[in-house]
Amino acid sequence: MALVLLALAGCALRPQQAPDAAPEARPGGSVPERAGQAPSPASAQPVALPPPATPRNWQEARLQAARRIVMANPGQTYSTPTPEVLLAIPVLTIELHADGRIRNIEVMRYPSQARDTVERAKEAVRRAAPFGDVSKLPRPWKFNETFLFDDSRRFKPMTLDRR
Known about the structure:
Strand order of the largest sheet: 2-1-3-4
Structural class: alpha+beta
Helix content: 10-25%
Number of helices: 3
Oligomer: single chain
Distance between the termini: 52 Å
């Protein structure tokens, strides 16, 4: 009986591409993205952003930064409701110079899985800078942002999450 079950199970299996195997190149040398995955940050084209406004308080600064992060990273973000189960939730502290340029990015929380999302989040922040003149805001000139990554490795800044 066990042999019959093994034989039937073997017939039901179809050969599939191994999850870690590289996708085949398309004519012209491009490699398709895997189904369900956002483009890798390295392949992202720079986006021309408007000059940032001067925020009047840290709430405005965080909101402007989150919007700039989304604008600077098209195709890597989502605006739909946040899934109940997320792939990863890295948290960054972004420290700024007085003029809104990035001084430092510190990881406050590493996700337990999909640790590559930390670097994706950092790169997304770098593409969105500068964040506006913060010299009139109270010091320290830093704020936290939580990145909500879905199964496709697309993210939404938690500041913009409206559950």
